[in-house]
Backbone:
C-alpha cells in the first residue's frame, strides 16, 4: 500500500494539506508538473538516508520515504524548536510507561509552535509514503525528524539547508 | 583524561601506548568530522584502565598494591590495573584469550553474557577445573554477538577484589542507533576489608553493615502517624522475619567505596565530549553486591540496549541497574558545560560519581542524596495496599509473603500485610483469558505477581521518568517463536539471620544434582522471590527472554532482577548442551548457597 500525502508549505505558519483518498497509487491532485524534483528517503532503525539535504526556496519536492526498519517511523519537516515541541508532546502522549506509541495515530500534520503545523507522514515498516512539500522562503534552516519517543534521540534526524 | 594510576605501575611499553591512546582524543576528533552513521560503531576506545584489542588477548592476574580512593589497597589486578582493562572484540571473529594466573590460589575468568561453548565459560567445577597458580589457560570461542558485556572471576570471592573489567563487542552490522563518541562506565563496590571477613561478618552478625537501622526517634514518628498498636505490630513483624525494614542491601556504604571506572567520587573521573555530540554510555554494574540508580541531572538519557541486546529506545531521566546488568544509553549534551554522572547506591548509603565535561578539570553540582527507603512500605505497595488498616485480613497465605524464615511467621494474620492472596486471585482471573492449550500463559505474557511497571524500592516515580522492565522491547522477535512446552518454578529463599541463601530452601551444598533442561526444549522459568531483597538471577550459556508483557517483542537478558515478593518469568531455548552455572549474582548470596548447576542434555 502506498500512502500519499500532499502538503504545500507556503511558510512555517501558513500550511495547506490534502490527504489523497483511497489506496493503490492514486495520483496526487497536484500534477507532476508542479513538482520540481523527487527525493527518495530511507527510514531505517534508527536513521534517515540521506542524512542532510539542500533545497532552493520555493522549490516543490516530492519525498518518497521507504521504511526499511522493523518498526513504525514518521517523517516530519519543521524547525528545530517546533520539532522539539512535537517530540515533547508525543512523549507526554505515550504516558509515563508502557507502549511508547499509544495514542499516536497516522497523523498528517504535526503541531508546531505558534499554532503552526508541520508537514508530517507516518510510515509502517515495509511501506512507502509520499510527502509533497514546497520549501518556504526566508527560512535559514529546517530539520526532518522522526519524533516517536526515543527515535530522534537515537539519530533519526537530518538538516535541510537552503541555498542562496 | 583521568588521573589514571596506570602510569604509576610497571607496564609493558605496549600497555603504556594503549593507555595513552585511551586517554587521548585524537580519534574522537576525527570522527566528528564525518557523518556519524558512516561509522555507526565509531569507537573512541576511551576507557581509563586501558584497552586490550582482540581477537588475541593476553591477561595476567596478580595481587598487588595499588591505591584505591587515595588509600593503600591490595586488589587483584589484570594487566596491572584494577578493575581490569577493557577487552574489545569483534562480532564474527574467533577470540583467543590467554589468562595467566600469577596469584597463589586458583583463579578463573567468566565472560558474562556471552554465548559460547560450555568449556569456555570459565566457572571452576562446572565448565573447567579453574586456572591453577602459575598456569595459563587459553579460552577460544567464536564471537557470535555484539554489545556491552563484562568479565569477572568466578572463583570464590575474588570478584570483590576488583577481578573484573568491561568486555565490548563491536557489531558486524549497523546498530539501531547512531553516535559520535562513546564512554564505558564500570560501576564497582570496593572494600578495604578482606572479602572473607565481610562474609564472616554477614554470617555471624546479620545487619552488621546496616547503620540505617530504625531508631527510637523513628519509633515515635511511627507512633504519631499510625498509633501505638500498629507501630508495635509492625515492629514485631519485622523482628519475626529476622530483618530490619531498612535492610535494603546487606553490604552497604559503611564498608564500601563506590567506584566508577575504578575511581572514587573525590577523584572525579571525567569523560569528555564536544557540545552537540551524541554520546553512547555503556554502563556496566560490575559490583559484588550493589544496585545503583543512575542519572545525569540536566540530561535526558535514551536507553538503547539492555544486557548487550538492542531495545527500542526509551527516553528516561534515571535507570536502576542491578548487579551484573548492563545498559547502553545515548545522551546529547548541547551546552559547553559540565554534567554530573551520578550513580546512587540503591540503599542510599553512598554513591559513585563521574563528570561529563567538554574539558578536563570541570565539575558540576553533586545532587543531594535521597532518603533511605523502607521495606515495610514496599511490601505493602507490592500487594496493592494503600492504607494501614489492620482490622480485617482474611485468608493469609504465605504465597506472596516474604518468608525469610517461615517457621517464625505465625501471628502475621494481624499484620498489615493482608489480602495478598485476593490480589493474586484477581490477577489470575484476568490472565486466564490468555492461557494456551497446555493451561500455561501465552508466550511473552507477564505473570500475575510481576511488577514490571515498578522500578523498585526508594523511587518516587512521580517526579521523573524511571526505566522499568516493562519498557524493554526488542526490535524483532527472537528466533525461537515456540510456546513453552514446560514450566520450571523456582523459589528464591533465604534466612537473613543465619545468612543462608538458596533456591527452593536448598543451599547448593544440599542439592543432590543439577537442574535438568532437555536439549532444545522451550522452557518457561518462573522465579518467585520469597525474600525481602532484590536478587539479580544470572543464567550462563543461554538467553532468558524476559516475559514483560511485550508479546513477540520481549527483550532477552542474561541477568534478571527479581524484586521482593515478585514473580518473574522468562522463556529459554535449551540449545546449549552441557553444564552451566545458574545463580544469584550478589556475590555473598552465591557463596552462601544461592547457586545451581543447569545441565542441558
Residues:
Amino acid at each position: 500500500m502506498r500512502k500519499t500525502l500532499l502538503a504545500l508549505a507556503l511558510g512555517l505558519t501558513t500550511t495547506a494539506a490534502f490527504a489523497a483518498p483511497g489506496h493503490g497509487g492514486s495520483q496526487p491532485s497536484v500534477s507532476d508538473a508542479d513538482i520540481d524534483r523527487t527525493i527518495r528517503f530511507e527510514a531505517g532503525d534508527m536513521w534517515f538516508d540521506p542524512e542532510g539535504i539542500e533545497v532552493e526556496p520555493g522549490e516543490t519536492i516530492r519525498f518518497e520515504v521507504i521504511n526499511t526498519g522493523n518498526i513504525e517511523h514518521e517523517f516530519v519537516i519543521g524547525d528545530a524548536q517546533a520539532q522539539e515541541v512535537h517530540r515533547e508532546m508525543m512523549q507526554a502522549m505515550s504516558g509515563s510507561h508502557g507502549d511508547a506509541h499509544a495514542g499516536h495515530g497516522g497523523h498528517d500534520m504535526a503541531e508546531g509552535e505558534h499554532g503552526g503545523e508541520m508537514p508530517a507522514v507516518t510510515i509502517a515498516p515495509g511501506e512507502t509514503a509520499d510527502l509533497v512539500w514546497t520549501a518556504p522562503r526566508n527560512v535559514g534552516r529546517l530539520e526532518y525528524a522522526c519524533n516517536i519517543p526515543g527515535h530522534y534521540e537515537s539519530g533519526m534526524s537530518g538538516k535541510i539547508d537552503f541555498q542562496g | 583524561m583521568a588521573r589514571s594510576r596506570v602510569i604509576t605501575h610497571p607496564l609493558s611499553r605496549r600497555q603504556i601506548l594503549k593507555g595513552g591512546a585511551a586517554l587521548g582524543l585524537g580519534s574522537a576528533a576525527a570522527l566528528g568530522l564525518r557523518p556519524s552513521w558512516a561509522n555507526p560503531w565509531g569507537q573512541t576506545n576511551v576507557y581509563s584502565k586501558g584497552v586490550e584489542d582482540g581477537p588475541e588477548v593476553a591477561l595476567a592476574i596478580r595481587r598487588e598494591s595499588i591505591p584505591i580512593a587515595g588509600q593503600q589497597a591490595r586488589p587483584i589486578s589484570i594487566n596491572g590495573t584494577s578493575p581490569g582493562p577493557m577487552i574489545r572484540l569483534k562480532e564474527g571473529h574467533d577470540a583467543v584469550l590467554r589468562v595467566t594466573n600469577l596469584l597463589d590460589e586458583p583463579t578463573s575468568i567468566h565472560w558474562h553474557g556471552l554465548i559460547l561453548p560450555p568449556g569456555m565459560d570459565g566457572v571452576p567445577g562446572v565448565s573447567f577445573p579453574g586456572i591453577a597458580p602459575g598456569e595459563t589457560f587459553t579460552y577460544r570461542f567464536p564471537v557470535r554477538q555484539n554489545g556491552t558485556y563484562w568479565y569477572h572471576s568466578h572463583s570464590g570471592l575474588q570478584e570483590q577484589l576488583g577481578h573484573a573489567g568491561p568486555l565490548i563487542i563491536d557489531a558486524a552490522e549497523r546498530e539501531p542507533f547512531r553516535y559520535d563518541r562513546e564512554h564505558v562506565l564500570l560501576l564497582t563496590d570496593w572494600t578495604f576489608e578482606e572479602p572473607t571477613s565481610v562474609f564472616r561478618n554477614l554470617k555471624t552478625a546479620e545487619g552488621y553493615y546496616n547503620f540505617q537501622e530504625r531508631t527510637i526517634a523513628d519509633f515515635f514518628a511511627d507512633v504519631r502517624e499510625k498509633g501505638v498498636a500498629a507501630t508495635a505490630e509492625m515492629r514485631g513483624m519485622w523482628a519475626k522475619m529476622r530483618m530490619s525494614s531498612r535492610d535494603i542491601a546487606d553490604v552497604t556504604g559503611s564498608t564500601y567505596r563506590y567506584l566508577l571506572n575504578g575511581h572514587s567520587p573525590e577523584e572525579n573521573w571525567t569523560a569528555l565530549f564536544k557540545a552537540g555530540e551524541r554520546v553512547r554510555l555503556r554502563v556496566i554494574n560490575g559490583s559484588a553486591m550493589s544496585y545503583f540508580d543512575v542519572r545525569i541531572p540536566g540530561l535526558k538519557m535514551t536507553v538503547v540496549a539492555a544486557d548487550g541486546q538492542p531495545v527500542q529506545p526509551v527516553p528516561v531521566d534515571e535507570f536502576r541497574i542491578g548487579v551484573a546488568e548492563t545498559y547502553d544509553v545515548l545522551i546529547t549534551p548541547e551546552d559547553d558545560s559540565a554534567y554530573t554522572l551520578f550513580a546512587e547506591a540503591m540503599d542510599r548509603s553512598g554513591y559513585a560519581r563521574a563528570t561529563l565535561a567538554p574539558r578536563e578539570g570541570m565539575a558540576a553540582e553533586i545532587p543531594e542524596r535521597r532518603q533511605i527507603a523502607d521495606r515495610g512500605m514496599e511490601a505493602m505497595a507490592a500487594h496493592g495496599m494503600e492504607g494501614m488498616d489492620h482490622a480485617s485480613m482474611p485468608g493469609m497465605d504465605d504465597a506472596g509473603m516474604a518468608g525469610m524464615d517461615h517457621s517464625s511467621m505465625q501471628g502475621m494474620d494481624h499484620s498489615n500485610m493482608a489480602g495478598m492472596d485476593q490480589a493474586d486471585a484477581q490477577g489470575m482471573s484476568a490472565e486466564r483469558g490468555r492461557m494456551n492449550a497446555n493451561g500455561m500463559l501465552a508466550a511473552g505474557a507477564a505473570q500475575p505477581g510481576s511488577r514490571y511497571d515498578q522500578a523498585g524500592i526508594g523511587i518516587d516515580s512521580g517526579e521523573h521518568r524511571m526505566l522499568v522492565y516493562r519498557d524493554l522491547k526488542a526490535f524483532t522477535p527472537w528466533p525461537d517463536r515456540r510456546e513453552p512446552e514446560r514450566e520450571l518454578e523456582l523459589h528464591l529463599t533465604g534466612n537473613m539471620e543465619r545468612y543462608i541463601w538458596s533456591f527452593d530452601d536448598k543451599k547448593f551444598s544440599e542439592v543432590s544434582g543439577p537442574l535438568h533442561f532437555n536439549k532444545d526444549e522451550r522452557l518457561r522459568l518462573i522465579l518467585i522471590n520469597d525474600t525481602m531483597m532484590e536478587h539479580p538471577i544470572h543464567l550462563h550459556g543461554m538467553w532468558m527472554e524476559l516475559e514483560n508483557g511485550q508479546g513477540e517483542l520481549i527483550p532477552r537478558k542474561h541477568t534478571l532482577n527479581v524484586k521482593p515478593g515478585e514473580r518473574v518469568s522468562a522463556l529459554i531455548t535449551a540449545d546449549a548442551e552441557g553444564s552451566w552455572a545458574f545463580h544469584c549474582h550478589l556475590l555473598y548470596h552465591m557463596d552462601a548457597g544461592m547457586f545451581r548447576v543447569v545441565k542441558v542434555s
Notes: Residues 5-175 of chain B form a domain with the Immunoglobulin-like fold (CATH 2.60.40.420).
